[in-house]
Specification:
The complex is a heterodimer. By secondary structure, chain A is α/β, with parallel strands linked by helices. Chain A is 33% helix and 22% strand. Chain A has one domain: Rossmann fold (3-Layer(aba) Sandwich), CATH 3.40.50. Chain A contains 13 helices and twelve strands. The longest helix of chain A has 18 residues. Chain B is mainly α. Chain B has a domain of 198 residues: MetI-like (MetI-like fold). Classes of the chains: A alpha/beta, B mainly alpha. At the A-B interface, α2, β6, α4 and α6 of A face α8 and α9 of B.
């Protein structure tokens, strides 16, 4: 695969984020997740609600302190004690786009001040004239115009607000952007607009994205590689075409079978894999493989041993005993 | 059921001229947050009435004592307990502004007051002009109320802000302290406080503030806790904003609304509390007057000289109702859910 020779921008190693719920219970929102993101690519992250996608994104950008594990950005650890200068450097390189366009803009600030916040914090403009010019330029980049600069967020539509959020992230010239479900709160007609803008910006500025979403078709459209999460674990990671054509993990197979096909003939005969039971609580997850309680192919070994995160095929990683040489002979 | 089928041809259609830039245009005039609040407040007639009444009372509190020729502590034992007499209105007898007491005697004639001497709201048992004393008292009541509200604001916002922003252990300890303070009946604290310090404007204010800030601090803490997890705060954090910037630029402006509402409700509360303290004899000491002290004095002779209690009570009622109306109006105007 072409991506293999590419330079790694971000390495996530055994990342864990646990929240203390009360004195005894610990919620393992992200548990031992490892993946790499290559320069210039888009890595999609999918999974059902509450599986830890957003927590992963927020832990990478240091909104949450990691419980364990490392996040290396260009070989440097993002977590741990940092001087103010080092922190600011990371803040400029890594940015985030948020899910809710209604909550992600301060209602008391003008659009100009919202977009210029990064410019102010990092002192990127020498005077107010330069600051204004940068803001106008950013507004144009995201398809708005400079008349909008002095208005307040409540005057804009959802799609416009989301684009303001994108302009704010771009203001500090980042290389890497975490898009935390940037389109799930938008109208379908506006979703395409925002996704196209993101793809255009990637082409123009060589951006790298971590794209978190639960809209499977949209993720396939925008991502080069896709990771699937289940209950705080990464269960499968592969190139997006390969993953969608040949999913290995039983969870991925069930997930992908839920995508409707825009062809009534095929749709009628489409076979869905319906999972039994409910999503277990992440406070008290099942032993061994976390998916075993709902897995149609569960074996005895699944309850005892954690599945290894391994490369089943070239560039196709999966955590399942079905693809482990050691256990494959036992059951199936 | 025959439908005339018309053949649709290409030449029947024309591409609509649509400028892509036009699509993003916003035609509504740009309003700042406070302009918007004012626009909504203006529509609320009750709130505007309250606002006008408060402005009039405040003006009168300062102008009133000056336009009367009598001083607020000028005593004259020959002119005690005079009923109200107002030039012009003295001819309309049923208004009770003609200097005639409840027994039907013209006290001004009996006490040989010169024809050109008027006491608009009458005099009290020491012969002091009630008009001057009422406005002087209003002045002092308002002063105490505003000082107490300012004290609530400063302590409450700081305490609640710190507690909410830092959260965790800090929040835990600070909230337990508040609960202990809240558990002690505040009347006991206030009475002890006034007994130790001499009753005066400052000590009454302090006594009101000492427990009054708790409500404000809880409101602010709740608001900050809610805002802290909002995405615009997270966005500011990912941009590298310092705590100071987060507080000054994002958190404080967004709590301002509820702080103002809470203040407009704590002002009448403080006025009422001061009146209560004066009524039980722990308030402002004579010859200084406050509305509460005046009502307390007048109450003693309510059946003989009702004018002594009625006028200060009317002023106080108008003041309290007005503040409550304004508070209500502001709450509606500041609440973003009411936005149309």
């Amino acid at each position: 695969m072409a991506t293999m020779e590419r330079e790694k921008l971000l390495e996530v190693k055994n990342l864990k984020k646990h929240f203390k719920v009360d004195r005894k219970a610990v919620l393992k929102a992200v548990d031992d997740v490892s993946f790499d993101i290559y320069k210039g690519e888009t890595l999609g992250l999918v999974g059902e609600s509450g599986c830890g996608k957003s927590t992963t994104g927020r832990t990478i950008i240091r909104l949450y302190e990691a419980t364990d594990g490392e996040v290396l950005y260009e070989g440097k650890n993002v977590h741990g004690k940092k001087s103010a200068r080092e922190l600011k450097e990371f803040n400029r390189k890594m940015q985030m786009i948020f899910q809710d366009p209604y909550a992600s803009l301060n209602p008391r600030m003008t659009v100009k001040d919202i977009i210029a916040e990064g410019i102010d914090i990092h002192r990127l403009a020498k005077n107010s004239k330069e600051r204004n010019e940068r803001v106008y330029e950013l507004l144009e980049t995201v398809g708005l115009n400079k008349d909008h600069a002095n208005r307040y967020p409540h005057e804009f539509s959802g799609g416009q607000r989301q684009r303001i959020g994108i302009a704010r992230a771009l203001a500090v010239d980042p290389d890497f952007i975490i898009a935390d479900e940037p389109i799930s709160a938008l109208d379908v007609s506006i979703q395409a607009q925002v996704v196209n803008l993101l793809m255009k910006l990637q082409k123009e500025r060589g951006l790298t994205y971590l794209f978190i979403a639960h809209d499977l078709s949209m993720v396939k459209h925008i991502s080069d590689r896709v990771g699937v999460m289940y209950l705080g674990n990464l269960v499968e990671l592969a190139g997006s075409d390969e993953l969608y054509e040949e999913p290995l993990h039983p969870y991925t197979q069930a997930l992908l079978s839920a995508i409707p096909v825009p062809d009534p003939e095929v749709e009628r005969s489409r076979e869905r894999i319906i999972l039994e039971g409910d999503l277990p609580s992440p406070i008290n997850p099942p032993s061994g493989c976390r998916f075993r309680t709902r897995c149609p192919h569960a074996m005895d070994v699944c309850a005892r041993v954690n599945p290894k995160w391994q490369e089943a095929r070239e560039g196709h990683w999966v955590a399942c005993h079905l693809y482990d040489q050691e256990f494959n002979k036992e059951g199936k | 059921m025959s439908m005339t089928e018309k053949k649709l041809t290409d030449d029947m259609f024309q591409p609509a001229a649509m400028d892509p830039g036009k699509h993003e245009e916003i035609t509504k005039p740009s309003l700042t947050y406070w302009q918007d609040v004012w626009r909504r407040l203006k529509k609320n007639k009750a709130a505007i009435t309250g606002l006008v009444a408060i402005i009039l009372i405040v003006i009168m509190a300062f102008v009133g004592p000056a336009i009367s020729s009598h001083g607020f502590d000028q005593q004259d034992v020959r002119r005690t307990n005079l009923p109200p007499k107002i030039p012009g209105l003295e001819k309309v007898h049923f208004l009770g502004m003609d200097g005639v007491d409840i027994r039907g005697n013209d006290q001004y004639k009996l006490k040989n007051i010169p024809k050109d001497q008027y006491y608009w709201f009458g005099t009290d048992s020491l012969g002091r002009d009630q008009w001057t004393r009422i406005w002087k008292g209003t002045q002092i009541s308002l002063l105490i109320a505003f000082l107490a509200a300012a004290g609530d604001l400063i302590i409450g916002v700081t305490y609640g802000g710190i507690s909410g922003f830092f959260g965790g252990k800090v929040d835990n300890i600070m909230q337990r302290f508040v609960e202990i303070l809240y558990g002690i009946p505040n009347l006991v604290i206030i009475i002890l406080f006034i007994l130790i310090f001499e009753p005066g404007i400052l000590s009454i204010t302090l006594a009101i503030v000492i427990t009054g800030w708790i409500g404000m601090s809880r409101l602010v803490r709740g608001q900050i806790l809610k805002l802290k997890g909002q995405e615009f705060i997270l966005a500011s954090r990912t941009l590298g904003a310092s705590n100071g910037r987060l507080i000054m630029k994002h958190l404080v402006p967004n709590t301002l609304g509820i702080v103002i509402i809470s203040m407009t409700f704590s002002i009448p509360g403080a006025i009422f509390f001061e009146a209560f303290l004066s009524f039980i004899g722990l308030g402002i000491q004579p010859p200084t007057a406050s509305l509460g002290a005046l009502i307390s004095d007048g109450f003693k002779q309510l059946r003989i000289y009702p004018h002594l209690a009625i006028y200060p009570s009317v002023v106080m009622c108008i003041l309290m109702v007005s503040f409550n109306l304004i508070g209500d109006g502001l709450r509606d105007a500041l609440d973003p859910k009411m936005r149309k």
